[in-house]
Amino acid sequence: MNSTNLKERLSILAENDVISFRSAELATKAFEQLQRVLQREEINSSEMLFTHLPTAITRIERGEEIGAPMPEILNEIKTSKFYPEVVQQVKYIESLHGYKLPQEEWDYLLIHYTNVFLQNEGGNKQ
Predict the structure, then answer these.
(1) Prediction pTM value
(2) How far is the C-alpha of 79 from the C-alpha of 117, rounded, in Å?
(3) Helix 103-119 crosses helix 49-61 at what angle (to 10 degrees)?
(4) Which fold has domain 3-119?
(5) Distance (Å, rounded) from C-alpha 110 to C-alpha 17?
(6) pLDDT digits (tens, 9 = 90+) for 10-61
(7) Distance (Å, rounded) from C-alpha 108 to C-alpha 52?
């Protein structure tokens, strides 16, 4: 996915009130940050992450909750060589959001970010 694809996707979701316009803006900034970190314009397999992220922020804004992911998956994520970088990405999102994210949302974002880092081989930094 590239910036144009992302903006089209977010626009459709926001216009149909699936996500808030604020969450679409936050997701766009997070995508741009990830492009810088991975040193890529096109980020492979990022659709799930950048659908979950604005949906999560919208859920938080609306006071909705989500169940936690399976602990086994999260334990596996914590062993990834990309885990420290992934944590930094979620902290960046939290700084954009301005509030601490619920642990369940943190955990799902860790899973999605790890998948993106794995699919993109950590970016162009070899």
Answers:
(1) 0.91
(2) 13
(3) 170
(4) PTS-regulatory domain, PRD (1.10.1790)
(5) 25
(6) 999 999 999 999 999 999 999 999 999 999 999 999 999 999 999 999 999 9
(7) 8
Q: What's the pLDDT band for 123 if we cut at 50, 70, 90?
A: low
The DSSP H or E segment spanning 4 is: helix 3-15
Q: What is the pLDDT of residues 73-121, one digit of tens each?
A: 999 999 999 999 999 999 999 999 999 999 999 999 999 999 999 999 8
State how far the Cα of 52 lies from the Cα of 90, in Å rounded to an integer. 13
Three-state secondary-structure class, residue 64: coil
Can you tell me the distance from the alpha carbon of 72 to that of 93, in angstroms, rounded to the nearest whole number? 24
C-alpha distances in Å from residue 40, one per residue of 1, 6, 35, 86, 124: 10, 14, 5, 16, 7
78: left (phi over 0), alpha (psi -120 to 50) or beta: alpha
